[in-house]
Predict the 3D structure of the following.
Amino acid sequence: MIPSSFTYKRAGSAEEACDLAAEYGEDAKYLAGGHSLLPLMKLRLAAPEVIIDLGGLRDLSYLTDQGSHVAIGALTRHHDVEHSGLLARELPLLAHAAGQVGDPQIRHRGTIGGSVAHADPASDLPAVLLALDATLVARGADGAREIPIGEFFQGLFETALEPGELLTEIRVPKPASGGWSFQKFTQRAIDWAIVGVAVQGNHVALVNMGGTPLRAAAVEAALAGGASPADAAAHAAEGTSAASDIRASRDYREHLARVLVSRALTEAASRA
Amino acid sequence: MKVDLTVNGNKITADVEDRMLLVHFLRDVADLTATNIGCDTTSCGACTVLLDGESVKSCTVLAAQANGHEITTVEGLASNGTMHPVQRAFHEQHGLQCGFCTPGMVMAIVSLLKENPHPTEEQVRTGLEGNLCRCTGYHNIVRAALAAAEVSS
């Protein structure tokens, strides 16, 4: 399978990338590691006329300790997130979950920013960053702005990024306390999650239970009210809108959400 | 567009379509046909090659993205007629049946052992989660990986 024809541009800097995006407008698409976009282009589900390759922007690949938070360059690969000593100490949930994305080859190419900007509700890292209350930094024609992750995901593959805006950094606050867990249920090792759950302290986020990654608000409310993990997990499907597809029915996904939230809360409690 | 890739140590310059995939560049331009196209959907790993020393699925990389970078295919592993330790381990442990997944498996294991020279059996099995063997001959493939690690130690 071959993508439909496009013009390839390699950006030498974030500024140049934004300029190219402004020049080509809606016909252009940013390409980071390419492991979400290229498969869609090969299936002709996406057919951008211009590809702006960000692969040369090495200065957007970093993990730095900023005291209260860790700053992660948007082009940091899953492989580097997975193996970061800084994250292993400060944000083990994120390092662990990055190691569950796809397979080693995919993690050698795919980037954290690409995954977030693509906004596939079946992706692992968007829900993980939702549980961690991350802040996203985007650069556009009018300079940089911060977007709380709770306002970022607006629909299936839809985000708060304006046309041409480039996601440059992800700021993840260091959790004050609380255990963590990441649960993912798949048919085969490298599949997307049928359902996934990320827990950090009393924050619970769901993978693939609606058009966007979701916080399990009813579970969090039950926990705040003193419910046990098992009792809180019974609320896992409330407020969700899971799809039925070839992998699973909506009912099955709701069942999985309850089971996985229960397992995740139990595991997180054991690590607290 | 003009691309400049170093493949198995040889510089290859070619004028290709912007949309050309790396696997097609290797097979059709560089004439290195050991790298197979299997699923063509980033799942099976048959097209695994090394990009700057790390395993990638060449069906999901544009030749343009690899412009200026170094690629190693299974043809580039042996030196002076001597098989690479991973190749020799596949031979000795009967790590292949039909052979279709083998080039990708070998390259995935070369990358795995570079990152983790002494993996446990479980680490080999999870490290190969991106490579499918349609003969289901995983057992001897894992043995070959462990044997290659043993030889290199």
